[in-house]
Amino acid sequence: MRDFYVYGFKSRIDFDRKSARTYDNEKRRCESYLKKYMKWDYKDGNKASFISVDSSKIPINPLFAAWKSKSFTSNDIMLHFYILDALKNRKMTVDLLTDYICEKSGVAFDTQTIRGKCNEYVDHGMLTCEKQGKAFFYGITPETVDITPELLDAIKFFQGAAPIGEVGSFILDNENVENNLFAFKHHYIAHTLEDGILLDLLTVIRKNQSVVFENQSERSGNTTTIHALPLKIFVSATTGRRYVCMYSLRKRRFFNYRLDYIKSVVPNEVIDSAPELREKLGNNLDKVWGVSFGGEHRTEIVCMKLHIDEKREQYIIHRILREGQGGELTCLGTNTFLYTKEMFDSSDMSPWIKTFTGRILALEGTNELVIKRFYNDMNQMAEMYSIGGEQ
Questions:
Q1: The pTM is what?
Q2: Which string of DSSP letters, residue by residue, matches 81-128?
Q3: Among residues 351, 346, 339, which one has the least CA distance to residue 371?
Q4: Do residues 149 and 162 touch, judged by C-beta distance below 8 A?
Q5: Contacts of 269 by beta carbon, 8 Å cutoff, 6+ apart
Q6: Which phi-psi region, left, alpha or beta, contains residue 246 (left: φ > 0; alpha: ψ -120 to 50)?
Q7: Residue 49, beta-bridge partner list
Q8: Where are the alpha helices (DSSP H) in the chain?
Q9: How far apart are CA 91 and CA 113, in angstroms?
Q10: Any bridge partners for residue 223, and if so which?
């Protein structure tokens, strides 16, 4: 699903894993979950499949299906029902449970197989395991939450608006209830495909553990293995993308990585200095405009002189104070203002600066490349519309 949804529309030529048959199998797998959302188009003469969804018109995220599917053997499915039926209103040791299942089913299961499945269900929270004397007794975990209609309404909201919303979707499925209350205009449903990574990261952040993770480059497509300490999850208010802020133990600085480009996360050692590093990150956040900490251990300054009609355009002043992320706004004279901001990477600020096109009297800064790029863009736009000469 990442290949078809996140990493771009895929045709047989673009799909570089194994063979064309693998492409067909994977496409059919996606279609089995998302048939009415699958579209296709021609790209460079090749038929490319993709997923197209109007998130404001769907009651539930269709990508949740990725977490509701699982490969299993015939023994898995049989033991699932046999074990839960055998342990209903009673607790048993593995030996008693094995004898009971063999007697009821007429199939001889190995004791180790039953023990392995029971321990798996204990890990998932479906079963309990209590030691009585030298024996371990397994039982079904009692329900601890009373699912009321009011709670179901909250779950309907949670499954659409919160991270790891597939948990709410599982509960609604279990209660045979559909979301009939909420729709979301800005709903980034593709986040579902990275929720497994998010859960792993939140777990190690709580434990102050470092991780070894595989990151796929956005530009080259190459995958690299990185050892770092996760500290905080960021969500872009502009694009909705999610990032994890990590401290590189080798380079001794902060980096942000997109969650949808992280392929896997493996927990590593506990870092005793994690609380101090988290505090250091908090002290630096006021100098991070977007997600970049810059290339060097120094800050950059941007000064933007603006023409704002003080009588009729107070909303512009309020907007700068609201969106300016702590930058200083100074009145230089009648209808003339100077906005100044110190940050690690001023290139992150460029899209916001351009929203004031037509009001900018001058732009200066310590990063000459960013300033030069801005004026080049303005000159190209002026040339395109024949509205002026070189600035």
A1: 0.76
A2: HHHHHHTTT--B-HHHHHHHHHHHHS----HHHHHHHHHHHHHTTSEE
A3: 346
A4: no
A5: 209, 210
A6: beta
A7: 10, 40
A8: 20-34, 74-86, 94-105, 111-123, 149-161, 166-174, 195-207, 274-284, 314-323, 350-354, 368-385
A9: 18
A10: 216
Reported as a single tens digit per residue, the pLDDT across 187-236 is 788 888 899 999 999 999 999 999 999 988 767 778 889 999 999 999 88
| C-alpha closest to that of 54 among 42, 37, 31 | 37
pLDDT tens profile 82-113? 999 999 889 999 999 999 999 988 888 889 99
| Residue 138 near residue 129, CB atoms below 8 Å | yes
Contact 359, 306 (CB under 8 A): yes
Give bridge partners of residue 160 from the DSSP assignment: none
Residue 359: CB atoms within 10 Å = 15
Catalogue all structural domains in the chain, each as residue range(s) with its CATH number.
2-52 (no CATH), 74-140 (1.10.10.10), 149-187 (no CATH), 191-287 (2.30.30.520), 300-385 (3.30.70)
* pLDDT at position 259: 92
**Measured distance CA(391)–CA(389) in Å, rounded:** 6
Q: What is the DSSP letter of 14?
A: T
Distance CA 244, CA 254 (A): 10
Short-list 359, 323, 368, CA closest to 341: 323
Distance CA 225, CA 382 (A): 45
Structure tokens at 217: 């480059």
pLDDT 10s digits, 110-123: 899 999 999 999 99
Report d(CA 337, CA 343) in Å as an integer: 20
Residue 391 — very low, low, confident or very high, per pLDDT cuts 50/70/90? very low
Burial class (CB in 10 A: 0-12, 13-18, 19+), 192: buried
